[in-house]
Amino acid sequence: MSSAEALNRFTNPANTAKPSRVSAPSEILKRDLRLSVGDGSAYGVMIGVGETYLQAFVLAIGMGEVFAALIATVPQLTGSLLQLVSPFAIRRLGSHRLWVVTCSGLQALCFVPLILAALAGTISQPAVLMVASLYWATSLGTGPAWNTWQGTIIPRHIRAKFFARRAKLCQITTLIGFLIGGFALKVGQATGNDVPVFAALFATALVCRVISTTCLALQSEPYPIPPEMKFLSLGEQWHRFSRGSSGRLLVFAVVMQVGVFIAGPFFVPYMLKELKFQYHHYAVLIGMSYFAKFVTLPWWGRLAHITGAHRLLWIGAVGLVPLAAGWTISDNYYWLLVLQLIAGAAWAAYELALVLLFFETIPESERTSLLTLYNVANSLALAVGSLIGAAILNGLGVSANSYLWVFGASTAGRFVTLLLLRRIPTTSVESADVPIRPQSVRSSGESFDAPVLTGIIDLNPEAKNAK
Prior knowledge:
21 helices, two-stranded antiparallel ribbon, 74% helix, single chain
């Protein structure tokens, strides 16, 4: 039976024989597949209408442009450090599913204080930082455990196609949620009452995460702790990641993220406060880069298969360099739309290449542990870059012209990072079909995404031989 036939059989009741004792495992699998799709769909809407609009919310209640930029990065760093307790917690609970469901439920509760704050029209800076940090801790803490757990549920022969389709659905619902949020805020803005609309958006995100959590809780768990699962200490993770080409690649990725996020979190306050964009214009602009990113991702995957991930990394990295500078050329809305299309395509190439190069040499049993270290390094880079941008903006005084200096500094940082690419050796990959699930939608294409590790098992010879 082919993978496509198996997936169709497991997801379409019409193609399945009448349930019996013999077919019980297949019935459980079909239920798990449907619940996984339901989880991904609801999760995507939550991303679109929830955390994505946190920056816009703090701007709407008057917290300041620099703080609005930092709220997009500093909590993520705090959350990435808190996620380090995940391996210990999983061992104590004796279950990946229980840990995932717990984190998912806590993430849903993070929207409660945001709903109350939107209704009241105010919240303190420490409070919103604490809520955002808990949100990111539960989000990042869930990822590695979810990957391991799903690998025990979904049969190897249908994983790639199933997770690819699930990822596309998640991307679509994320985009739909984001656009709905932007146009809903436009209606509120037209009546001069946009802040309460954020309460409705956060409430929608809460409901969607509750639905997602329910779908997760109802899925099976044949192996609470897979026998081949390895829990690596932080020291062991660093040792594995710092060896040879993977270490050089990690340094390059971290330095590039620093350069990118000198400007990255400042695009939202620049658009909403300095350029005075309305919410629906802002939503369409960011949605354009998100759309371009996931439309071009399959094409980049085919190119990587033909030319190699190393060349794709060069294409993506070079494409990232001029993006921030493009904002200094003109603030014409149609020019920025074109720029966002280019940004989405460049980020798709860059992020896919990184995933392929990072995980092609890492055994499947160790990927979830090493993903934790990568999340910490990536979040640290985001925070450092945003603090550099904040220092420039504060030093010059917040103005439209000061933002242009921030964008220029980001361009220079990205260009210098290209020198590190020369130290990364050329490699090849066997497969380039990598499903990616969104975790946040960012302003200029650099959406924060996580690879579905169980869907990229063919990158590793160890996994291939295990088939």
